[in-house]
Write a structure and sequence with these properties.
Oligomer: single chain
CATH superfamily: Metal-dependent hydrolases
Helix content: 25-40%
Distance between the termini: 38 Å
Mean pLDDT: 92
Low-confidence stretches: 272-281
CATH architecture: Alpha-Beta Barrel
Radius of gyration: 18 Å
Structural class: alpha/beta
Order of helices and strands: EHEHEEHHEEEHEEHEEE
Strand content: 15-25%
Length: 281
């Protein structure tokens, strides 16, 4: 199996990033990973690239974080692929399978709606994954579940409280979504040699970021057409610590969360994972 980090930020392009390419590459090489996706915070999120730059210049500056990691990866044989993480109101989406040329040619992607983002990314041959869908933090006013606007969900995120990942996995099972995992790594210097990093395990080696998008989209289609296929048994394996999806004694069902309807408006709902009666509006 080939291991890939799917969620990582750099000090060059994310305002909250702490590590540059050399630190990131050293960590994942030592952990036995085949490759990483650099997913810096995009135009709507915590980017450190000034938003008043001309679009072409903004895109190139944003791409510099990826380039730094790619250059370091070339030295040690670690594959490095380009992606990004776009933020809307409280929900964020990981985008895979596109490149700098596509980005320069599509300035609309900076500020378009969730639905238009999905359409544009699909037209380009990429895919969209909702990042850490259940994240209850001070900067999140609401948990917005954008299942209509993504191809899958990040069921496990190293930066999450474990029970939030339990909620995400249950939602993935309930709504038959492709599930991924990632570390949301901002600082590789703080991850010890015996500490786990999250990622996906794939049977085939990726040659480019679009290969990963093809895997996600193929598994999405399989889940939609083959009801006997479990979301836990797709070609996208989750590389996470044992017990990550177990609730500790005394932990309860998730706090209130909201689906996004076709108009991208919040629709109240509550998920009860004992009986799975929640519905998607």
């Amino acid at each position: 199996m080939y291991l890939y980090e799917t969620h990582m930020h750099t000090v060059i392009s994310s305002a909250c990033g702490k590590s540059a390419g050399k630190e990131h590459v050293r960590l994942y090489r030592d952990k036995g990973y085949q490759g990483v996706f650099v997913t810096d915070h995009f135009f709507g999120g915590n980017t450190c690239v000034p938003r008043d730059l001309p679009w072409s210049e903004w895109a190139k500056r944003f791409h510099a974080g990826f380039e730094d990691v790619w250059n370091e990866g070339q030295k040690v044989g670690l594959d490095v692929f380009f992606g990004w993480e776009q933020c809307y109101a409280d929900d964020e989406y990981l985008v895979y399978g596109l490149d700098l040329n596509w980005l320069i040619q599509h300035p609309e992607i900076a500020t378009c709606t969730r639905q238009r983002q999905l359409e544009l990314i699909h037209e380009g041959g990429g895919c969209v994954i909702q990042a850490h869908p259940f994240r209850f933090r001070a900067y999140n006013r609401y948990v917005r579940l954008g299942l209509r606007f993504c191809d899958g969900i990040e069921a496990a995120n190293k930066g999450n409280v474990a029970r939030w990942d339990v909620y995400a996995r249950h939602m993935g099972l309930m709504y038959r979504k492709v599930m991924t995992a990632g570390s949301d790594n901002h600082d590789s210097t703080r991850i010890g040699p015996n500490e786990d990093v999250f990622g996906v395990a794939l049977e085939k080696k990726l040659s480019c970021g679009q290969d990963y998008a093809r895997v996600i989209l193929k598994e999405k289609e399989r889940l939609e057409t083959d009801q006997s296929l479990s979301p836990e048994h797709t070609a996208v394996g989750l590389h996470v610590p044992d017990g990550r999806f177990e609730l500790a004694e005394g932990e309860q069902e998730p706090e209130d969360s909201w689906f996004l309807d076709e108009h991208e408006q919040r629709v109240p709902t509550h998920l009860y994972f004992d009986t799975y009666p929640a519905r998607q509006v």
